[in-house]
Design goal:
Layout: H1 18-67, H2 74-105, E1 113-116, H3 118-135, E2 139-143, E3 146-149, H4 150-166, E4 173-180, E5 184-191, H5 213-219, H6 225-235, E6 239-245, E7 249-257
Parallel strand pairs: 2-4
Antiparallel strand pairs: 1-3, 4-5, 5-7, 6-7
């Protein structure tokens, strides 16, 4: 009865009979899963609040500083307004990414399947990201049909390539390789970047998890990109894996069935 009312920490073990023991064990396992889900939900809500408050705090500080200055030179005014505008963009990105995730989490989330030439799709994505790569002096290499949700897959690939550019070395490289066999297509995104420490590699697909908080803030990421990518891949009944060495770069590999099986 207590559990029914929401008291998930109630002890419900019963050893009297084998049947009741099995039932209580099974219910106990379900309660443990519910507790984990509840804790994960609370963490997510607190992370969302924190992430959304950060740009607002910056905007408040910048605006207050401007208002308290009296006669402000135009150059300084412009600089402050630019900073405020950047923080608004950052807030917008977090909200957009959150909405993408929420839509994908809904059980009725649908894939808009269409036949797509993946070579063309990847080329278009790289064309959009090339200016960012050029600014950071990172060389983008593409080595080179199928049934996928073009918009969602574009989002997943964009997140991977953008991360590879942002977390790279000056004069580094990013190599995107597309391959297929009779069952799957494989998309590999390799970079010469900073790499990901081994002890956190299984956490990087978590929402808002950041390996390097300072650098993430500097590059303007929302902390949701890899969570979105993983969701998209799973919706396509695919798999994603990472292999990385700190200081030696990372390789993300997507494997997606050529024909989506509902």
């Amino acid at each position: 009865h207590h559990v029914e009312q929401g008291a998930l920490d109630t002890d419900i073990s019963s050893e009297a009979y084998r049947e009741t023991r099995d039932i209580s064990n099974s219910v106990a396992q379900t309660i443990t899963k519910l507790q984990e889900a509840d804790q994960s939900r609370q963490e997510f809500v607190s992370n969302v609040s924190h992430e959304l408050k950060t740009p607002i705090t910056s905007i408040r500080v910048l605006a207050d500083s401007l208002m308290g200055m009296g006669e402000v030179p135009v150059e300084l005014y412009r600089e402050f307004m630019e900073d405020i505008s950047n923080e608004i963009d950052r807030e917008s990105k977090i909200i957009d990414d959150l909405l993408s995730l929420v839509k994908m989490d809904k059980s009725e989330a649908e894939l808009n399947i269409s036949q797509v030439n993946l070579n063309v799709l990847v080329e278009q994505i790289l064309k959009r990201l090339r200016p960012i790569a050029n600014r950071r002096k990172v060389e983008l290499i593409f080595e080179s049909i199928r049934d996928v949700d073009e918009m969602k897959l574009s989002l997943a690939i964009t997140n991977l390539v953008e991360n590879a550019i942002k977390y790279n070395m000056e004069e580094g490289w990013v190599r995107v390789t597309l391959d297929a066999d009779h069952k799957f297509f494989y998309l590999k995104v390799q970079d010469s970047g900073i790499g990901i420490p081994e002890d956190v590699q299984d956490r990087i697909f978590e929402r808002f998890y950041r390996v390097d908080k300072a650098r993430s803030r500097e590059t303007g990421g929302s902390g949701l990109g890899l969570a979105i990518t993983r969701n998209v891949v799973l919706m396509h009944k695919g798999a994603i894996k990472l292999s990385s060495k700190e200081g030696e770069g990372s390789t993300f590999t997507l494997r997606i069935p050529l024909n989506y099986i509902a």
